[in-house]
Amino acid sequence: MGTDAAAGGDFKAAGAYYGRIVGGQPPFEELALMLVDSGDPEALQVFLSTKLQVLGPNDKAQATMVSAWLTELILDQINRDLLAAAGQHTVAYTQHVAQLRQFLTDYASVLNWNTTTALLESYGRLHELEVFADAKGDQEALLEYLMRNADGAKRALGVLRKPSVGPQLVYKFAPQLLATATTDTVDFFIVSGSTLDPRQLLPALVRFGEPGAAPAQRDQVLRYVSFAMDQLRCDDSAVANLAVSLLSLEESEGRLLDFLARARNPLGKPLFDAKYALRLAKERNRRHACVKLLCQLGLFEDAVSLALDVDLGLAKAVANMPEDDDNLRRKLWLGIAKHVVQGGDDTADAVPQAGPDQAARIKLAVEFLKEAGGLLKIEDILPFFPDFVTIDNFKGAITDSLTRYNKQIEELKEEMDEATEIA
Predict the structure, then answer these.
(1) How far apart are CA 163 and CA 160, in angstroms?
(2) Which of 154, 167, 272, 315 could form a disulfide with 307 if both were Cys (CB 3.0 to 4.6 A apart)?
(3) 285-334 pLDDT, tens digit each
(4) Are the beta carbons of 300 and 332 closer than 8 angstroms?
(5) How would DSSP label each residue in 18-83?
(6) In sequence order, what are the residues at sequence separation of 6 or more whose Cβ sits closer than 8 angstroms to the Cβ of residue 285?
């Protein structure tokens, strides 16, 4: 029957008949070659489709070969449709695309992944490649393929958005996605919300906290980290440390200082590692942040010492922080006084020189006594001045000090008198 159909020029009917032949006579190769030479490309497709349907479970190798050949024939037909219609999507084109997608779905079990993806890639059928990956249930292989292409990141994000794709694949491909499509990837992370664990994304995020990271990419990563902490309520210290790292690379310290002040758990404990943050702030010369962190660690003397190199007002603010420890506050104010009197040179042998600057320092030191809120007296700061400074320069301060002493004496007398009367 097949021979008769072929002789009559009906090669499709011949292909359908030959495809049902089992036992190898005539040989598969001979029949296929005859249909190739027939000049009717659809005849070969009919032959291969029929053969694929009659192959048994023990013929998997031949089924894989036949299915690959059939895939290429359908792809070639789609290309011919496009060429014939100058790239327009005709009815024939749409039908053949649907045929290809259905074929990839129906025969995914026998189609070889590498061969099929190579064919689909060579014909530019990326959507069909996604269909094939879905049918294979191998989204990871698809993602690996997509990420090998320069423009594959956006398609990969489309795959990851599918409900059938779990978060583990997101975590695996996050480093590549952030490197090639940072903004789109961060948008995807944010839209995914609590379905993604910020801690699992850290391996992909931390590299943007290094000095070599591009500012635009760093800003995008910071956008996600801020979302994770503010909206997802992530209180993981590693995530908070990354926020410190990202913020410490900004030109201004404003947002870093704000974060250091507010990143607290309900008990008021910092979410970040203060020692790590301090080391980072020192390495990156974030001096205001260093002062704040030293205060958080209770190292007020170091904080004042550093603050004096930054801003005198900041040093004074730090000196007032240990409200419950007058002795410490007095010590801090004394250190500031020494710095003011000696013009910033706190070495033991520093000797202020006479002149206009010295006069200004004396005036500043006298005013400084008032700012210290009674913690310091004139006699506390006199040792910081050289012997040639005259008493007239301190007349007002000495008078105030004597007045204060006199008042204290009067108060003590009153207390003694009251005690005597009671006795």
Answers:
(1) 8
(2) 315
(3) 999 999 999 999 999 999 999 999 998 889 999 998 988 888 898 899 88
(4) yes
(5) HHT--SSSS-HHHHHHHHHTTT-HHHHHHHHHHHHHH--GGGHHHHHHHHHHHHHHHHHHHHHHHH
(6) none
DSSP state of 210: S
The CA distance from 223 to 243, in Å, is 10
Residue with the two structure tokens 């006298």: 366
Taking the C-alpha atoms of residue 311 and residue 304, their distance in angstroms, rounded to an integer, is 10
**Contact in structure between 143 and 165 (CB atoms under 8 Å):** no
Here the tokens at position 337 are 């006084």
Q: How far apart are CA 49 and CA 142, in angstroms?
A: 26
pTM (predicted TM-score): 0.72
Answer whether 100's CB lies under 8 Å from 124's CB: no
Separation in Å, CA 323 to CA 39, 290, 291, 327: 97, 21, 17, 10
Amino acid at 156: A
Q: Which long-range contacts (CB under 8 A, 24 or more apart) does 53-56 make?
A: 53/19, 54/19, 54/20, 54/22
Go through 300-313 and write b for each residue having 16 or more CB atoms within 10 A of its CB, e for each that does not.
Answer: bebbbbbbbeeebe
Output the six-digit token pair for 394.
Answer: 């301190």
Token representation of residue 93: 């084109």
**How far is residue 97's CA from residue 75's CA, in Å, rounded to a whole number?**
8
Instruction: Tell me the per-residue pLDDT of 130-171, one tens digit each, with 9 for 90 and over.
Output: 889 888 888 888 898 888 877 789 989 999 998 889 999 999
Q: What is d(CA 125, CA 100) in angstroms, rounded to the nearest whole number? A: 10
The residue with tokens 């008021």 is: 268
Contact between residue 168 and residue 138 where contact means Cβ atoms under 8 Å apart: no
C-alpha 274/C-alpha 272 separation (Å) is 6
Q: d(Cα 151, Cα 121) in Å, to the nearest integer?
A: 13
Helical axes 254-262 vs 287-296, angle rounded to 10°: 10
First and final C-alpha spacing in the chain: 139
- Which residue reads 């005198």 in tokens? 312
SS (H, E, C) 132-159: HHHHHCCHHHHHHHHHCCCCHHHHHHHH
Q: What is the sign, positive or negative, of the torsion defined by CA atoms of 67, 73, 79, 85?
A: negative
Compute how many other C-beta atoms are within 10 angstroms of the C-beta atom of residue 359: 12
Query: pLDDT grade, residue 369 (50/70/90)?
Result: confident
Residue where the block lists tokens 């005036």: 363
Per-residue tokens: 67: 């299915």
